[in-house]
Design goal:
Layout lengths: L15 E6 L6 E17 L6 E2 L12 E8 L8 H11 L4 E2 L4 E2 L2 E5 L14 H10 L17 E2 L9 E2 L2 E8 L2 E9 L4 E3 L6 E3 L12 H6 L14 E7 L5 H18 E2 L9 E6 L9 H22 L14
Parallel strand pairs: 4-7, 14-16
Antiparallel strand pairs: 1-2, 2-4, 2-16, 3-7, 5-6, 8-9, 10-11, 11-14, 12-13, 12-15
Length: 325
């Protein structure tokens, strides 16, 4: 399976992406719009998640289709951005038809970026609305934008020795079916190249001048910092034009986490709230093999993580991958 350099989640027909990025500090939100609805599933692996409407996606529950997924910075405060997406969809007549009103179904997840700049500045409902207005089907920007604006990685030895990360996207097409991903990477662990194991961005040496490889350092005897739970988290969306049930979409989301594990070390810790959503538009009118889709989802999730590191730009005190050899 070959992932094209210019590929993106918006290669899936019917999927739009919009970013809102704060001009006052590094934070923001990213909206994945499927205005006419898409079958959805979710899988939460981290132990400190901040999420909205994930119970609704349980296969045993009634509603099957969502209209937007919002990824946001700002920790739990950032969940408010989903209210703006609801307002946008309501104004444009999209939602679950209850007979008396159309209720937009908007799911979401947040990451913790409060240490980067003034923590009183965080995405709100107006931010989520603005991201919807900006949404389109062109390849979305990567790096320090949207939910990736304040993302950092490599925090096992404290924020002072971490590095800047961001948001990345990729897609792949096989047998007429496309699977895409967009991932905002704010992990406790390091981002590594799955092909070589080389650390791309992560914990730095005590002098801050080089990447060190946190896992190897800890196994070699270095003691990590004491951190508060919930101070990291990688969140993302998998999209496909295949036809899936909710249970199958959930399985694809589960397998997509394998891609995170290939590109982030460690992953799914007590400090991360790692969450992956899957949306299936049904644009290809055939039920694809969920196992094959899961393999594709893992591949594009890993590629998106790598692109998040490669696209990030350093900010004062937090260099990015391009800044350190």
């Amino acid at each position: 399976m070959t992932i094209r350099a210019e590929s993106a989640i918006t290669d899936v027909a019917g999927v739009k992406v919009g970013h809102w990025t704060s001009t006052r500090r590094p934070t923001g939100c990213t909206v994945v719009l499927v205005e006419h609805g898409a079958v959805a599933g979710v899988d939460v692996r981290g132990s400190a998640p901040g999420t909205r409407e994930t119970d609704l996606l349980n296969p045993e529950n009634l509603v099957e289709r969502v209209h937007a997924i919002v990824l946001s910075g700002g920790s739990a405060f950032g969940l408010d951005a989903a209210s703006g997406a609801m307002r946008y969809l309501d104004e444009h007549g999209f939602g679950y038809d209850t007979g008396v009103a159309k209720v937009p179904i908007v799911c979401g997840a947040v990451l913790f970026d409060l240490p980067v700049g003034d923590p009183r500045i965080r995405p709100d409902a107006a931010s989520g609305y603005a991201a919807c207005v900006a949404a389109g089907d062109a390849r979305p920007a990567q790096g320090n934008v949207g939910a990736g604006a304040g993302a950092t990685v490599g925090k096992l030895f404290g924020y002072a020795r971490s590095m800047k990360s961001g948001i990345g996207t990729a897609s792949i097409t096989l047998a007429g079916v496309t699977v895409g991903a967009i991932v905002a990477v704010n992990a406790l662990g390091d981002i590594v190249d799955p092909a070589t194991g080389r650390v791309l961005a992560g914990a730095r040496t005590a002098d801050g001048k080089a990447k060190m490889g946190a896992t190897d350092a800890i196994l070699g005897g270095e003691v990590p910092a004491i951190l508060a739970a919930g101070t990291s988290t990688t969140i993302g969306v998998i999209a496909t034009d295949a036809t899936l049930t909710k249970a199958q979409a959930q399985k694809v989301a589960q397998m997509a986490h394998d891609g995170l594990a290939r590109a982030i070390n460690p992953i799914h810790t007590m400090f991360d709230g790692d969450t992956i959503f899957t949306i299936a538009t049904g644009g290809v009118p055939k039920t694809a093999n969920p196992t094959l889709l899961g393999m594709m989802a893992a591949a594009v999730a890993a590629a998106s993580v790598v692109r998040a590191a490669q696209s990030a730009q350093g900010i004062p005190g937090l260099p990015a991958a391009r800044d350190l050899v």
